[in-house]
Amino acid sequence: MKPSLFFAILLTIFLSSCSTTAQPGATLPAESMKGFELYSWQEGDQWKFSLLTGTNREKTLDELQSADAALDGVDALRSALEGVSAGQTITWSAKEPLAFPPEEIVQQVEQICSDQGLICNIAR
Fold it and tell me: How many angstroms separate the CA atoms of 89 and 104, rounded?
């Protein structure tokens, strides 16, 4: 095999593995310099969450509730939080029209964070 063809194949494989396109349920980086932002809202009987990498800018409602960001229920949130490194900060806020779930679910999420070694700050 010619070296240039071999290099082209390797480059193609490398670039395809570096894709940054967000997919539904895409995994977050394990660590973030600005921590992570958690949002919650209710749709029908289902509580939904979005866990995003922390930034200095305010997210739009469309970003928070997009199919790429939305997590259906506490189990999906637990799976996302399991991928975050211990010691990271999770800041949970729910400005209108978002909302916090009932206290039982809030406590469940706090326990998940505690079990994972995460710092959960709830901005009520």
Answer: 21
What's the pLDDT score for residue 2? Answer: 56
Give the integer Cα–Cα distance in Å for 115 and 34.
21
Structure tokens at 115: 């079990």
Provide DSSP, 23-51.
-TTPPPPS--TT-EEEEEEEETTEEEEEE
For the chain, give every domain's residue range. 29-123
Q: How far apart are CA 19 and CA 22, in angstroms?
A: 9
Neighbour count for residue 110 (Cβ, 10 Å): 15
User: Mean pLDDT for each consecutive 10-residue tract of the chain (124 residues)?
Assistant: 49 40 52 92 97 94 95 98 96 95 98 98 94
Question: d(Cα 40, Cα 122) in Å, to the nearest integer?
Answer: 11
Residue with tokens 């930034």: 55
